[in-house]
Design brief:
Strand content: 25-35%
Shape: globular
Distance between the termini: 29 Å
Oligomer: single chain
CATH class of the largest domain: Mainly Beta
CATH architecture of the largest domain: 3 Solenoid
Structural class: alpha/beta
């Protein structure tokens, strides 16, 4: 009997997977930047809360559902020397950081320009949730490397499906000569991935400033990938400033990303590549053989202000021929009151080696035109999520709370955008479950097939989840 059930479940899952593959092939996802539709919800019924880290330090996943949980993650990296390589953290509620003293996840300072000893190497999956009212200012001076962002230093990390609200801000105001400022990562050391994120936060830096990443000092053996990500917050710097990335060195891929925030620099140096402003990247620097930079399918909608501006890239350096900008569009206005300012709708300036030219292919110069494709993305619709601590068999750690938000509080109303206008539904609203009628003919037939696939997928997944949960519970009993 058990064997027959297993065979039936396997057949149902295979058929449903086939249906999903066919559906995906018929409707490709071509949205530029963040999209709530890309978020895949995880089953977290038996996942421990980050607050139980001390009791269960060897798990491969934890969930975070409070401001205190985010602070616990930051402290574990900074004070306990955890890197969390191979560990995934899932945010399961919108988190309000009002009144919370913050230090970046991964230190806010380092003592050298390479190979920092403390960093975050795990995965943070925001699950489409919003972090709001996170305000951080770094005032570090002296010879330290100053780092500012939600994450300070990362190495081998993945950050995805995360939203930073417009009431968040990240500022560097110190005197350190080496400083990196971004909303999501200040210093992306080594290989990292940022996928399907949305930042509405204000970013104010000095040397290396990016709406998403401040600096990436990579090499031929590392890769920074930023994919399907949107910055819609203002970015200002005293030096290089970019809508997505500031100082980008080494092998780089920025694909299908959008900047809708205004980007500017306070520098009055005209034509200086160190003070470039770029709609997507301030400075692209493949500096050695084997390093390549590809910026593909990106859009800039923000106004750019500086002595040297590029609608997509402000400046390319060293081996310029290793930088490729393709299928990109600039709608943003290029502005400067400085005499002899240098600007271009795609690439501001080539500061590379003599005879080395970047590849610019199929880009569109549409400065000042309206972009009908740009709308502030809705956050992911509300969903039922188990936020229990996740300790089966009666293991329940003491409850911990924070003034900003407790685990039992009602999730705050979702707001996004410069004016905090409501996006998505309130928890009290009943979702509209009325499905439109399908017309007869081919479309109706496809819809019917899709419905059958959905029923099979739901039934098969539910049965599989129950079976899998039982196995996991049994395994825990024998640990």
């Amino acid at each position: 009997m058990k064997k027959a059930i297993s065979l039936l479940l396997s057949a149902m899952l295979l058929l449903s997977a086939f249906c999903l593959a066919v559906s995906a092939a018929e409707e490709p996802d071509d949205t530029v930047g963040f999209s709530a539709d890309r978020v895949v919800k995880a089953d977290l019924d038996e996942v421990y809360n980050i607050l139980s880290l001390d009791e269960h330090p060897e798990e491969d996943a934890y969930k975070i559902n409070s401001a205190e949980g985010l602070v616990r993650l930051s402290n574990a990296v900074k004070n306990d020397f955890y890197t969390f390589e191979g560990v995934t953290f899932y945010i399961t509620k919108d988190i309000d950081m009002s009144g919370v003293e913050w230090l970046p996840i991964g230190p806010d300072t380092a003592t050298g320009n390479s190979n920092p000893s403390k960093y975050f190497a795990g995965t943070l999956d925001g699950q489409g949730h919003i972090i709001s009212n996170l305000v951080y200012e770094n005032k570090t001076g002296g010879d330290m490397v100053a780092v500012t962002g939600l994450f300070g230093i990362t190495k081998g990390a993945t950050i995805k499906n995360l939203i930073l609200n417009s009431d968040c801000s990240f500022t560097y105001s110190g005197t350190a000569g080496d400083n990196r400022t971004g909303s999501i990562i200040g210093w992306a050391n080594g290989s990292n991935t940022i996928e399907n994120c949305l930042s509405l936060a204000a970013v104010n830096g000095k040397n290396y400033t990016g709406g998403v990443v401040g600096q990436y000092p990579g090499s031929a053996n590392t890769l920074l990938r930023i994919v399907n990500t949107t910055n819609a917050g203002p970015v200002t710097g005293a030096g290089a400033a970019g809508g997505i990335g500031g100082y980008m060195q080494g092998t780089l891929e920025i694909i299908n990303c959008r900047n809708a925030g205004d980007v500017s620099t306070s520098s009055d140096k005209v034509g200086d590549a160190w003070n470039a402003v770029g709609g997507i990247v301030a400075r692209s620097i493949p500096a050695a053989a084997g390093q390549t930079a590809r910026i593909d399918g990106c859009i800039n909608n923000g106004t750019l202000t500086g002595g040297l501006t590029g609608g997509i890239v402000g400046a390319v350096h060293v081996i310029a021929s290793e930088t490729t900008v393709q299928n990109c569009i600039n709608y943003g206005e290029l502005k400067s009151d400085l005499p002899n300012a240098v600007s271009s709708e795609i690439l501001g300036i080539n500061a590379g080696n003599e005879g080395s030219e970047p590849t610019l292919t199929d880009n569109q110069e549409r400065s000042g035109e309206e972009d009908a494709s740009w709308v502030l993305p809705d956050v992911i619709p509300d969903y039922e999520q188990d936020d229990s601590p996740g300790e089966p068999e009666g293991e329940n750690p003491p409850e911990q709370t924070t003034e900003a938000q407790t685990d039992d509080e009602t999730e705050p109303e979702r707001t996004t955008g410069p004016n905090d206008t409501t996006a998505g539904r309130n928890d009290t609203e009943a979702p509209d479950t009325t499905a439109p009628s399908e017309p007869a003919g081919e479309d109706g037939c496809q819809s019917a097939v899709g419905g059958i696939c959905l029923i099979l997928l739901t039934a098969g997944t539910a049965a599989f989840a129950v079976t899998n949960r039982n196995h996991r519970a049994a395994n825990r009993k024998h640990r």
